[in-house]
Design a protein that fits this description.
3 helices
Length: 130
């Protein structure tokens, strides 16, 4: 199984310009909450999540239900089984994973969306400063 401690988890394996780069959002301390979350789920679920990440790499914003869903603004949700991984498409062909959790109900919890939106704002502010 892949290690999720690096910033980029699914970069294009070929020079195919149509592929998307999938990255973990890393906070100022160098910690990625999404990587930490994925590492604690069972191995079988990690494999399913890895498959969904490869789909995201392949299709980017064209990935749709049931694998992915637009939430609001630039925020999207990857939907591997009962897990939810929020991501943003900030620029170019880049997807940044912001937040992950195990879904316990039919609807996406508002507090989880708000947490992802907060991380998205922090990421955008940081990207603009660089």
């Amino acid at each position: 199984m892949e290690s999720y401690s690096r910033g980029v988890i699914a970069s294009p394996e070929t020079s195919d310009a149509d592929k998307w780069t999938v990255e973990f959002n890393v906070d100022r301390r160098g910690h990625s909450p999404v990587a930490a979350f994925i590492e604690q789920v069972p191995n079988r679920q990690q494999a399913i999540i890895a498959h969904y990440l490869k789909l995201l790499q392949e299709f980017g914003p064209d990935l749709a239900m049931p694998q992915a869903r637009h939430i609001e603004g630039k925020l999207w949700e990857l939907r591997p089984n009962a897990y939810r991984l929020f991501y943003v498409l900030p620029d170019g062909q880049r997807c940044v994973l912001l937040h992950a959790y195990r879904n316990q109900s039919q609807e996406t919890a508002r507090k989880e969306i708000d947490r992802a939106l907060m991380r998205m704002r922090d990421l955008m502010r940081h990207d603009w400063e660089d």
